[in-house]
């Protein structure tokens, strides 16, 4: 299975899971008098649209290079991640606004059975996070990572709702708003989580240097190629699920231009074979002159 297929499959998993959970949370929140659950349902609803965006981003970013996009379409992925972060911020704002209104408005205590619903949701969302984050690491997908953190964010907001409802039920009359305070706390966490998702995507767009481990792997593989004496500069920029590499390779300065050209191609082929996550590879041959 290709990286794109793996990422698409994980995204479909998110879409189906979030659709079911949005319905369950919404109904449980309405009939169980829990705004924290309704807030959770709002977030899951935005997660559905966010996952559809991630799906579009993954498919678009994996289009092959063309005349107008010689490096491919990979940069669409972090752009989609920015939009997904926007969905998170919007949902957090709505939850916070509604929480404040509910804190100021007298209402009934949540139903005790909503805790069982939340318990099941927390377990499922944490499982979903672990599955999708594993797939994001396998595929090097920043937008899929954002989708995974939607699941973790959802799990934590559900934990907050669980605590709020528990406090309201244990302390009784006068503590009905504990549920709403939990939703308000969850909205703050969602905003913080949005920043954590936004920051790496920004670094990807800005070609930030954060790939030391991959550079070390590239240097090690390069030295396995007969004729490569050493490596100098190595620049990496990520686009979608691929890493584009500019590498300076040091070779014997007395060989012919054709031999140097052939050696560069041999190095490129070896890097692609050993490190399949690499995309466009540019090899610059540097001569080493023996004294």
From TrEMBL:
Alphabetically ordered keywords of this record: Membrane, Transmembrane, Transmembrane helix, Transport
Keyword check for Membrane: yes
GO cellular component term, pick one: membrane
Domain Cation efflux protein cytoplasmic: start-end pairs: 212-288
Pfam families: Cation_efflux, ZT_dimer
Gene3D superfamilies in the record: Cation efflux protein transmembrane domain, Cation efflux protein, cytoplasmic domain
Cation efflux protein transmembrane domain segment(s): 13-206
Membrane topology summary: Multi-pass membrane protein
Transmembrane segment boundaries: 12-31, 37-58, 79-101, 113-133, 154-175, 181-198
Family: Belongs to the cation diffusion facilitator (CDF) transporter (TC 2.A.4) family.
Alphabetical list of PANTHER family matching this protein: MITOCHONDRIAL METAL TRANSPORTER 1-RELATED (PTHR43840)
Annotated protein name in UniProt: Cation transporter
């Amino acid at each position: 299975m290709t990286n794109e297929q793996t990422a698409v499959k994980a995204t479909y998993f998110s879409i189906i899971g979030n659709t079911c959970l949005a319905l369950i949370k919404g109904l449980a929140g309405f009939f169980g008098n829990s705004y924290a659950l309704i807030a959770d349902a709002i977030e899951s609803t935005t997660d559905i649209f966010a996952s559809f965006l991630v799906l579009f981003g993954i498919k678009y970013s994996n289009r092959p290079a063309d005349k107008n996009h010689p490096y491919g379409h990979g940069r669409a992925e972090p752009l989609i991640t920015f939009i997904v972060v926007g969905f998170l911020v919007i949902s957090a704002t709505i939850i916070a606004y509604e929480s404040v209104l509910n804190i100021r408005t007298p209402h009934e205590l949540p139903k005790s059975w909503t805790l069982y619903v939340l318990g099941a949701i927390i377990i499922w969302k944490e499982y979903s996070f672990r599955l999708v984050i594993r797939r994001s690491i396998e595929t090097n997908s920043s937008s899929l990572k954002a989708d995974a953190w939607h699941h973790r964010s959802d799990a934590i907001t559900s934990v907050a709702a669980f605590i709020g409802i528990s406090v309201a039920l244990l302390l009784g009359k006068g503590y009905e708003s504990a549920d709403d305070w939990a939703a308000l706390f969850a909205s703050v966490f969602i905003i913080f989580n949005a920043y954590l998702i936004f920051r790496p995507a920004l670094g990807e767009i800005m070609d930030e240097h954060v790939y030391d481990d991959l550079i070390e792997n590239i240097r090690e593989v390069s030295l396995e190629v007969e004729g490569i004496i050493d490596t100098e500069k190595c620049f990496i920029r990520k686009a979608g699920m691929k890493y584009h590499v500019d590498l300076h390779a040091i070779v014997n300065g007395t060989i012919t231009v054709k031999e140097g050209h052939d050696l560069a191609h041999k190095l490129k082929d070896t890097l692609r074979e050993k490190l399949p996550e690499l995309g466009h590879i540019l090899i610059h041959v540097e001569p080493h002159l023996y004294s």
